[in-house]
Design brief:
rod-shaped, alpha+beta, 3-stranded antiparallel beta sheet, 8 strands, 2 helices, 99 residues
Length: 99
């Protein structure tokens, strides 16, 4: 099989794919119209990861306020999970999560 055959096939079948080539600097560079040179290394540009933020939430139940142990992106998600009053998110608890 030719060096770039599988990559060329994937690229031809999916017009949303972007091709990159490896530069001598070690960085990947976009190539809109690749020449498929046998001495060049090509790849499909990795899809960007979607990150989102999550927090712990302050809860109130039977007049007592406490911090929930689990992380949720929205107040509604926390309310559905805990089934009690969700007061607010705890700002210092923010984490970033990959989708």
């Amino acid at each position: 099989m030719r060096k770039h055959a599988e990559l060329i096939k994937q690229w031809a079948e999916d017009e949303t794919l972007e091709i990159e080539c490896l530069q001598t600097s070690g960085e990947w560079y976009p190539v809109p119209n690749p020449y498929w040179n046998i001495s060049v290394e090509y790849r499909i540009k990795p899809k960007a990861k979607n990150n989102f933020e999550m927090w712990q939430w302050a809860l109130m139940d039977d007049g007592k306020t406490f911090a929930g142990l689990h992380y949720f992106a929205t107040k509604k998600e926390a309310e559905e999970y805990y089934h009690c009053r969700v007061v607010c998110r705890i700002e210092g608890s923010r984490i970033e999560v990959e989708e």
